[in-house]
Amino acid sequence: MAGEDAQSIDKQRAATGECVNAQACNRVLSRMPVRGLTKVRSVVGLFVLAHNLMRTAVRAPQIIGWGRGASAKAAQAA
User: Fold this and answer.
1) What is the DSSP track for the chain?
2) Of 7, 30, 58, 75, which sees the most CB atoms within 10 A?
3) Quick one: CA torsion of 73, 75, 76, 77, rounded to 10 degrees?
4) What is the predicted pLDDT for the residue at 32?
5) CA-angle at 61, arms to 58 and 63, nearest 5°
6) Exposure string (b/e) for 36-74, b if CB count within 10 Å is 16 or more?
7) pTM exceeds 0.70, yes or no
8) Which of the two residues, 64 and 44, has the higher pLDDT score?
9) Inter-residue contact 41 to 35 (CB < 8 Å)
């Protein structure tokens, strides 16, 4: 971690991976509400799906038809 390359990699990891972990802890996943590997995978899968949809809505609303561009107008017309 002493080199500049390692420090830049650590900054990128902190900005992406740690943010997701913090959001998971702040929401439901600080303590797992179910038991068993199958159920845990289902809960985590639902969290991942919800997280990805929320990030898509924030970063690229035109993809889901919430923007004001041509793709949003086409989605509203359909």
Assistant:
1) --SHHHHHHHHHHHHHHHHHHHHHHHTTTTS-SS-SHHHHHHHHHHHHHHHHHHHHHHH-GGGGT-SSSHHHHHHHH-
2) 75
3) 90
4) 82
5) 130
6) eeeeeeeeeeebeeeeeeeeeeeeeeeeeeeeeeeebee
7) no
8) 44
9) no
**Over the stretch 15-34, which tens digit does the pLDDT of each residue have?**
666 777 778 778 777 788 89
Q: Which amino acid is at 57?
A: A
Q: Which residues contact 68 (CB under 8 A, 6 or more apart)?
A: 62
Residue of 46, 45, 66 lying closest to 56 (CA atoms): 66
Amino acid code (one letter) for 22:
A
Q: Which residues neighbour 69 within 8 Å (Cβ) at sequence distance 6 or greater?
A: 62
